[in-house]
Write a sequence for this structure.
């Protein structure tokens, strides 16, 4: 009984501390600076938006690579 | 002749979703209706760019029609602009911080970010919805900033740069820091509370000691995290307090929590009794959430200030030997000749060198009508040229000009606004010191008396736990919370709880006139002679040709009283600066305007204390309209209330003495100060404070901001300027004067209960501490009675709302 409890506690700790670690890291990065946008963001998700986000990433990578090459 | 029936239809603009007058509708396909060319243009632009998703995302939101901007975006490419606002990162990309004007909803943010991301050369565009600030990173070799700004303007928004200074950076970092600490505190406390369910169930039904020990270990881990990570701010505060020889609430909170934590540790390591790890994390969490709300309030005040600063003109046109050149504000020298176009703001103070011009000084004086400036008259920075192009000579540089001085004064007031010392802090200073001394005495006394270390420690902990300042710490905030929630129900927003105390002690209330005592809209009070329908059509067509507030009021008056109005096609319409409008219809000369206009045309009119609009055809005066800014309905009740509670009411306004005296007389206000500049008002408030009075200032315009920031309590009406709302302590959302009366009633009653709570918690301590010192109270009972004392305070506070 105690062994099971101990195991459950260890697993629980690992999961919860991982989550709180992600929360702290994202807050420090500024993800919660604009809570209003964060909340509305959930309503705004659509396949088109995801596609646009991926395109944005690709564009940023390309621009950075081009800038490096020019240097 | 064009004949249209003026009716308000239910047609909604396809772009901005606002209802508009059918007479101005631009119709395309059967389902496309636009209120203006701007909306039509933006709609097609978005459709071409594949961004028509915007309308789905808007849902039921409305937006303002596109802003027509006269600013020349090429100024954003000036070297002096780049030096001041643009930063270059390590990769060689440029970065600028902008405030985007016109953002109303999440869809606006989506649209702006989307259109910028689609723009070639823009690496990153991120807009903060809460404060409308945007961070743009782009490659200057691909696209200049002016084109990015043009892109924003093309979809109906506008952008201004702002200095992302160290203070703003600190505010952002402080907010992030508090979010993580509050998040961790809530996370830790919730976990402990879940585990506590098992612990308390076991307390009554029995529990294996190994399992209880395991629960204590889990509680220990979470509460350690909460106490030393989330509660770090209190330890820091306590340390700096002690360094400056101040015993503050941070010391009480951190001290109380640490002692409870140490006691619980002794239980964890084998001592008998109950652990209080849950109390440790709860004390930290509740107090930390309160602190976080304070940080949010301060940050929002700073955001509003940034918004206002961003509207300061960036540059000015200086004329040197007949050659015009655009320079940054700090390069303007005294003696420079500055040219200001229609709609532009004067950048520095100076003296007019043209015969006549008009300026909108509402941002400084609150005067709603444009002010005429003749040769030699002073032109103030920040005022808008409402006439044709004019020139003036700079008499001050930018740093010494009115606008810059006001900004600096405001910043100082925001930074150094004296914090009202809370009654609890004053009491707790001595209280906590006394408890620490008593605890030491108890330990020393019992150790010498019994020689038993453990017993002495247990009794000492009982003293500290029973005297833990929970009730004392709760006495003010819980009563304030009830008071504030009551106030919120009535449309009153107290920005910080402590304002209740100062409010309750107020002795003098200073009110502004326009928008506070009066409605702030001109309405027609009387008409000297009735006009037949044909003449009314002529008058309506004449006022329709002008955008002046007086013409607008006459237009509203006619359309509100007559159903069928025809707009006639007038000829040779001429706006006569500061006087009125002249036009011709089928050879007849129409004149509409003030007494000065009539005099120049040889028409005699009566003098009046009010604003009067005269209408004449072919030199014959047909009718005169007397206008007034009507007094709000509930002024009399407010004046009587202040008299009944012995609070002095004073009216301070920038308006003319005649108008101010008439309004004060009608309202029943005995003390009036007229023709006061914003600085005069602020000095008057400071003088009252020097006399020992507690001053409440009520205002709504930017011109009141300085005085508001000087007052002990600043109240802004909800419809007021952003910056006035930012420096205010209390905001009256429903814009009603009854709100001021309610604020007084609520704060006075809440303050009474705060005092009662403090008394209750002190009596509790006076009774229980001697019992604990005598060894009659075990730590468990001490903790229980401590909780009961808190409940007592909470219960008493709930009574605040009972009498409405």
């Amino acid at each position: 009984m105690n062994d099971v409890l101990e195991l459950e506690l260890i697993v629980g700790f690992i999961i919860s501390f991982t989550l709180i670690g992600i929360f702290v890291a994202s807050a420090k990065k500024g993800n919660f600076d604009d809570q209003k946008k964060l909340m509305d963001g959930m309503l705004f998700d659509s396949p088109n938006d995801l596609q646009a986000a991926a395109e944005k990433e690709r564009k940023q990578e390309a621009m950075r690579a081009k800038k490096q090459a020019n240097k | 002749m064009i004949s249209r029936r003026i009716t308000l239809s239910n047609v909604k603009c396809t772009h901005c979703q606002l209802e508009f007058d059918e007479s101005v509708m631009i119709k395309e396909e059967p389902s496309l209706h636009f209120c203006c060319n701007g909306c039509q243009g933006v709609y097609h632009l978005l459709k071409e760019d594949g961004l028509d998703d915007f309308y789905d995302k808007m849902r039921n939101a409305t937006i303002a029609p596109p802003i027509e901007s006269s600013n020349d975006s090429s100024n954003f490419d000036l070297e002096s602009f780049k030096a001041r606002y643009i930063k270059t990162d390590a990769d060689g990309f440029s970065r600028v911080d902008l405030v985007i004007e016109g953002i109303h909803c999440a869809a606006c943010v989506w649209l702006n970010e989307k259109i910028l991301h689609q723009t070639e050369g823009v690496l990153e565009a991120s807009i903060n919805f809460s404060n409308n600030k945007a961070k743009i990173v782009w490659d200057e070799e691909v696209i200049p900033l002016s084109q990015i700004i043009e892109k924003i303007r093309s979809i109906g928004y506008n952008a201004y740069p702002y200095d992302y200074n160290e203070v703003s950076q600190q505010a952002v970092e402080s907010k992030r820091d508090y979010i993580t600490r509050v998040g961790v505190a809530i996370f830790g406390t919730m976990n402990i509370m879940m585990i506590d369910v098992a612990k308390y169930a076991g307390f009554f039904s029995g529990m294996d000691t190994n399992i209880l020990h395991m629960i204590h270990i889990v509680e220990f881990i979470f509460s350690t995290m909460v106490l030393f990570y989330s509660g770090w701010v209190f330890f820091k505060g306590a340390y700096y307090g002690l360094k400056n020889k101040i015993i503050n609430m941070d010391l009480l909170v951190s001290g109380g929590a640490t002692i409870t934590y140490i006691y619980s540790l002794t239980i964890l390591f084998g001592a008998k009794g109950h652990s209080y790890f849950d109390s440790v994390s709860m004390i930290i969490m509740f107090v930390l959430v309160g602190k976080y709300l304070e940080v949010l309030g301060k940050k929002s005040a700073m955001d509003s200030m940034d918004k206002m600063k961003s509207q300061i003109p960036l540059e000015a046109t200086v004329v040197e030997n007949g050659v015009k050149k655009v320079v940054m504000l700090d390069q303007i020298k005294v003696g420079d000749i500055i040219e200001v176009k229609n709609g532009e703001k004067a950048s520095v103070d100076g003296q007019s060198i043209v015969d006549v011009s008009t300026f909108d000084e509402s941002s400084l004086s609150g005067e709603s009508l444009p002010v005429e400036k003749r040769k030699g008259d002073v032109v103030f920075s920040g005022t808008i040229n409402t006439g044709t192009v004019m020139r003036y000579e700079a008499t001050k540089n930018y740093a010494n000009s009115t606008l810059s001085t006001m900004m600096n004064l405001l910043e100082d007031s925001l930074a150094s606004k004296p914090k009202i010392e809370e009654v609890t802090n004053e009491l707790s200073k001595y209280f906590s010191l006394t408890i620490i001394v008593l605890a030491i005495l108890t330990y020393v006394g019992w150790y010498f008396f019994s020689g038993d270390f453990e017993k002495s420690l247990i009794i000492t902990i009982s003293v500290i736990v029973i005297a833990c300042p929970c009730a004392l710490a709760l006495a003010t905030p819980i009563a304030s919370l009830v008071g504030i929630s009551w106030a919120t129900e009535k449309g009153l927003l107290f920005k910080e709880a402590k304002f209740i105390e100062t409010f309750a002690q107020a002795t003098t209330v200073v009110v502004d006139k326009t928008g506070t005592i009066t409605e702030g809209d001109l309405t027609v009070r009387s008409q000297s002679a009735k006009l037949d329908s044909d003449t009314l059509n002529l008058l309506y067509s004449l006022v329709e040709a002008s955008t002046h507030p007086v013409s607008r009021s006459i237009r509203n008056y006619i359309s509100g009283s007559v159903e069928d109005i025809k707009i006639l096609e007038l000829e040779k319409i001429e706006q006569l600066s500061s006087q009125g409008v002249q036009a011709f219809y089928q050879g007849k000369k129409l004149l509409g305007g003030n007494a000065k206009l009539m005099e120049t045309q040889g028409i005699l009119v009566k003098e009046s204390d009010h604003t009067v609009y005269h209408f004449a055809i072919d030199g014959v005066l047909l009718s005169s309209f007397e206008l007034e800014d009507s007094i709000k309905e509930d002024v009399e009740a407010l004046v009587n209330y202040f008299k009944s509670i012995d609070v002095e009411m004073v009216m301070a306004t920038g308006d003319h003495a005649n108008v101010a005296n008439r309004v004060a007389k009608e309202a029943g206000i005995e003390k009036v100060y007229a023709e006061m500049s914003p600085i005069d008002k602020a000095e008057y408030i400071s003088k009252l404070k020097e006399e020992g009075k507690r001053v409440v200032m009520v205002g709504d315009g930017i011109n009141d901001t300085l005085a508001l920031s000087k007052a002990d309590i600043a109240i802004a009406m909800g419809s007021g300027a952003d910056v006035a709302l930012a420096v205010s302590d209390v905001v009256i959302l429903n814009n009603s004067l009854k709100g001021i009366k309610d604020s007084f009633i609520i704060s006075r009653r809440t303050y009474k209960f705060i005092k009662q709570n403090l008394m209750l918690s002190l009596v509790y301590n006076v009774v229980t501490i001697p019992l604990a010192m005598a060894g009659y109270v075990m730590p468990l009972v001490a903790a229980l009675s401590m909780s009961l004392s808190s409940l007592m305070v909470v219960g008493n506070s709930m009574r605040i709302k009972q009498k409405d």
Q: What stands out?
A: The CA atoms of residues 233 and 600 of chain B lie 71 Å apart. Chain B touches chain A through 33 residues (CB under 8 Å). Chain B has 27 helices and 29 strands.
